[in-house]
Amino acid sequence: MVLPLGITVDSLFKSSGSFTKAVGLPPAVYSDPEFHRFEMDAVFGADWLCVGRQEQIPGVGDYLSVTRAGEPLIVVRSKDESIRVMSAVCQHRAMCITASVDRTDDNMLDPPDLESGTTRQFRCPYHYWVYDLDGQLIGAPEMSKTPGFDMADVQLPSLPVEIWNGFVFTNFDSDAEPLAPRLAKLDAVLANYAVESLVTVDPVTIPDVPFNWKIMIENFMEMYHNSRLHQGIHDFAPSSGAWYSDPDPGDVAMFGCNETVEPDGGFNPTFKALFPPLPGTTLEERQRVVFALVAPSLLMGFQSDSAFWFYVDPTGPTTHALSMAYIFPASTIDLPDFGDTLEEAIAGVSNFNRQDMPTNVSVQLGMQSRFAPRGRYAWQEGVLAQFNTWLVSRYEAAAAME
Ligand code: FES
Ligand SMILES: [Fe+2]
To answer: For the chain, which domains are there?
Structure first.
């Protein structure tokens, strides 16, 4: 079986299994355009992708516009209060119906801004075809002289939806296996965190992060670098306290804990949590940071006083869009000094990003080198071999179908 670039499944298997024997993925998978196209189908065409949090669209008509794997999507609270995910591509002539057309000379040729907000219906800005919140066409000017045209036949394509712990997932494969059963082990670890009730605060999206999506996930998940790259600012959670769960075949979550030297540590210059501990967590849970991946799109971190999520969405072989937000218990958000403390927390995390992001940019350059390695792993980055195993199973399945 041969994949793009003449990469064989046998060669990929060298990256699978335990860290004790696995080597890095072939470097071309981090930059090659042909492999990227293959991967978009093999991984992003068939797995559950996170598109937002349910509390971001609490009321009927609230909607988010997102792009996943190059597809513009609408995530909307429908008339029956359920959450729907549907294509944002107008079924007339393919305008993105939530795209802003109010632009200046300076940005009129930039990629579209897809707007989020609240609406009673979606009206395409191009020729004013109108869709209801379920994606049914309910208005189409001047189409009565078009023989055989019936609005009842036209809907925005609808995608499957699954909600897990407040995170909304969708899938381009309408026959996909349900997600939740494959997250059971992670559910058990998060049982006391009341993840479903946490509230997203001020999410931001960086549209053009200049490295491959897998480099972002690897950097987020492995704890080997914590005591090295972040020496001095990560000492409250040293790499020696790393632990990873053992995924079974079929599991889609990879996760681990980094024990902290004291309870209630924090990613800021005080190394102490800035907010009250998450209600319901034990002292043991307050003395660790949990990092989790729901492959391929959702990264989560849980600390004593808060959690955060990252959505990773490839936009090209060497680029991705990265969305990020903190999530807090509502009781924390209601605190009088919440806004100021949040700014302090965000400034604290920036100290880590200022080391991680240039590192990731540099790894991208190195992966494109003729001297790029398929290196061995340390136990503190055992999750990378797990991620490889998951990826290779997807690559293998897609190659077998060709
Ligand atoms: S493309 Fe949407 S109405 Fe024409
Ligand atoms: Fe880091």
So the answer is: 4-47+180-401 (3.90.380.10), 49-162 (2.102.10.10)
